[in-house]
From TrEMBL:
This is Kinesin-like protein. Residues 398-417 have a biased composition (Basic and acidic residues). Its main location: cytoplasm. Keywords: ATP-binding, Coiled coil, Cytoplasm, Cytoskeleton, Microtubule, Motor protein, Nucleotide-binding.
Amino acid sequence: MDGENRAPGSADNRGDNIKVVVRCRPPSSEEVKAGYPIVVAVNSVHRTITVKDPSTDASKVYTFDHAFGADSTQPDIFNQVARPIIDNVLEGYNGTIFAYGQTGSGKTFTMEGVSDKPELRGIIPNSFVHIFGHISKAEDNKRFLVRVSYFEIYKEQIRDLLAKKGDRDRAGNANILEIKEDKLKGVYVKDLSEQVVYSADDLDRIMAVGKKNRVTAATKMNLHSSRSHAIFTVIVEKSERRSDGSVHLCVGKLNLVDLAGSERQTKTEATDDRLKEAAKINHGLSNLGNVIAALTDGKSTHVPYRNSKLTRILQDSLGGNSKTVMCANVGPAGYNYDETVNTLRYATRAKSIKNAAKINEDPKDALLRKLEDEIQELRRQLNEDPGGGENDGPGSKRMSEEMMLRKRQREEEKAKLKKMRDELAEEREELERNRFLGEKERQKLQEDIAAKEEQLTAADAERNALTEKLSLLEKTIIVGGENLLDKAEEQERLLEASAKELELRRKREEDLRKTLLSKKIERSKMEQKHQTLQEIATSKKFEVTRLEEEIVTLRADLKDLRQENQERLEAAQQSKAEVEKNIRLYEKVIDQLLPKKMQELIESKCTYNKDIGEWEVSCLAFTGAMMRPDGKHGGQVRSLSHAEALAQAEQLKSQPLTDRNWEGVFPKL
Ligand SMILES: Nc1ncnc2c1ncn2[C@@H]1O[C@H](COP(=O)(O)OP(=O)(O)OP(=O)(O)O)[C@@H](O)[C@H]1O
C-alpha cells in the first residue's frame, strides 16, 4: 500500500482506532531517596491518569484504553495489552505492539522484562509462550511455521541483530541493510536474516542472542538506556485443511517494538557523539510524531513516512494494515513532569489513528506452502507417498496424470534398483561358488560387482540425503497439538492463571463501573430533580419578589387611600361643620322667624320622603300664604313653588315681623 500519498484518515469508517494504553512505573529508589514529589496518579477503573504540575498544582487528566499503575503486574499487561493482538496475529492479521516514553520510563521493562524471573517477564517472552501455547492446543489439521527476525535502527542505520558471522565486519558490526518496497511484500528490509523457530525456548534463545548485539550506551538519565529502536518480528504462517479437503493458508506478522527514549537532548547532558546520536534518534521519534500528527489532524494530505527509517518500517502499523497497540510509559516523579505530559499528549493524539487491518490470506511469498510442496515432492521421491498430494484439489485431472507418470517412473526406478541388487547378489554368489574361475573372468566379475555396489551406494546416499532433508523440512513445520512449550510450560500456566484472575477482576471492575454508572445516573436524576426544585424555587422567588413589589405598591396605594380618606374625612368634617354652622344659622333664623309653638307644629307635620330624600310638611299645601288660586286647577289653591316662596320671603324682609305678616306667610294650620 502506498501510504506516502494516501490521504490520512482514508481508513475512516473502515478500520479500528489503534489502542493506546498508559503505564506508570513505581518510583525508583533514587527518586525516593531524592524525595521527588509524586505527581502522577492512575485510576485503572476509570482508565485515567492524572498529572499534577508541581509548580502550579494544576492537574491534567488523560483517558486511555487502559491505565496501569505502579502495582500492575507483567502478566496483567500481557493479558490486557498484548494477548488480543497476538490472537489476531494467529488468525492471520498483522499486529504491532510498541512502547513509547522517555528514557527510564519502563519501555524495556514492559517489552522484555526480567528474563530469569517468570513473573517479571515482559510482553515479548510472554508472546512467545502464548504463540506456542496456541499451536500446541490447535487441532492436527493445522500446520504452522514460525520465523523471526530482529533488527535495530541505530543512528538511522539498520543492522541485523541475528546476522551470521559472515555478515559482520571485523568489529563485529552487522552489515547495514536497506529498506525496500514491492507490491507483493510491501515495505521490507532487504537481506534481513530470518530464523525458523520450533518452540518458545528457541525464541527466547534467539532474542537473547539479538539483545547481546543491540547497541546500548550510558547516558546520565539511564545507565543502561537503549539508544536504538529495536524491532523483533515474529511471522506465524498457518495452513488449515478443511473438511472439504481444501487447504487455507494465512500469515500473521507480529512487530514488537522497543523505541529509544524520547527525552530531550539537553536533559541528558549528552555531548559530542552522544549529541549527534541523540539528534538521529530524535529524528526518528520526532518524525514518528509528525506521522501521528499528519494522520490525525484531518488536514494533511501527505504522511511523511519516508522521512525516517522508523516510520517507514512502521508504515503499516500506523494508519495501515495492522492491529496496533501503543504503550505509553511514564515515570511518577515531578522532575519528569514536562516529559510525562509530552508523552501523554503524544499518546492522546495516537488514539485517533485509524488502521484498516485485514487477514493476509494465501500470500504469494508464504514459506509454508513452498515447504509443504517440497515435502510432498521429497515423499514422492522417497516413494513414501502412496499418491494424492496434500495440496491437490479433488478432480484435478492434470495433476493426477502427472502423478501417475511420476509413480510409474518411481516404480521403474525401484524395479531397476531391485534388479541390480539381485544381480549383485547372484554375481557375488557366482564369485563365491566358482573358485576356479579364470583370473580375467574373476576380475571382470569383481569390477561388475564394484560398479553395481557403487551405483547402489550412490542410490542409498541419495535416498539418505532426501530422507534427512525431508525430516528437516518436516521439523520446520509444526503440526497443531504438538507440545512445544518445553520449559515455557510453567510460564504458560502462569499466564493462564493470570488471565483467569484478570477475567474475574475485569468482571469486578465492570460491575464497579456499572455501579458507578448507575450512581452517576441517580446523581444526575437527583441533580435534575434538584434543578427542577431549584427552578421552582427560582420561580417562587420571582413570584415572591413580584408579590413583594405588589405589596409595596398596594401599601403605597393604601397610604394614598388613607390619605385620600383622611382628606375626605377632613373635608366631610369640614362640610359637616359647615352644615352644622348653617343649621345653627337656620335654627337662629327660624327661631327669629317662627314662634316655638309653630316650629313644633310644623315639626310634627313633617315626614321624611325617602324616595326624593326630602322632608315634606303634611297639610302645607292647603295653608294660607303658600296657597294661590290656580287657573289650571279649577280655581283651587296649590303649593308655592320654591321660586315663589323665595320671592315672597324677599318681600317679607322689608316688612316688620308681625303676627299679621306671619299669618300671611304661614296661614293658620
Ligand atoms: N513497572 C515497573 N516495575 C518495576 N520496575 C520498573 C518498572 N518499569 C521500569 N522499571 C525499572 O526502571 C528502570 C528503567 O526502566 P527501563 O530500562 O525499562 O526504561 P526504558 O524506558 O526502557 O529506558 P530506555 O529508553 O533508556 O531504554 C529499570 O531499572 C526497570 O527495572
